[in-house]
Amino acid sequence: MKSKQWRNIGIFLAVLVVIYLFTRMQEGRYRASADEVFELEKDDVSRFVMQEGDRTIELMRYDTLWVVPGFENRKVREWRLNNFFNTVLPVERESMISDIPEKWGTYGVDDSSGRHLQVYDMGGDLAGDVVVGQSTTNWQSSHIRMAGEDEVFLTRKSIYHMISADTSFWLEPLPEPEEEKEEAEEAEEE
Fold first, then answer.
1. Is the pTM higher than 0.85?
2. How confident is the model at residue 181 (pLDDT cuts 50, 70, 90)?
3. Distance (Å, rounded) from C-alpha 112 to C-alpha 105?
């Protein structure tokens, strides 16, 4: 009698293991896989170009210093660069939400409404070219489309707000001219 009980317990446990493994296999099909958009590290980037409507800005690295051509007398905000490299560069795309070019406008990734980002490696080669749109249903994500491709993906983090072609977003303000400082100080003393 004891051998029959052990056999039944063994069969029951084997069935449970099979059910568990089958369930895990089925769940694995529904998990969102994520791929890195840019396969670069911070030190591998020589420049990046952002375009938003008719505005364009380029940030270039000279050794360890980042500058905006045409604005060499102004310092690039270090914390903006750190946010860019810590959030935008390692961003991952997960689920594809469309592959129909007619819907690009809905997701904000068409050429007119999307924000373009091009990242170049140290050799000067284009390492990534994407169009980013703001998700209207999920503020924690953005929509992203690789240039030249039809597929629109959802990102794991929102990066739309970090891609700006506005110089005031990236550059420290100009210092006040000395005359204005002196006049302000005199006005405060009176």
1. no
2. low
3. 8
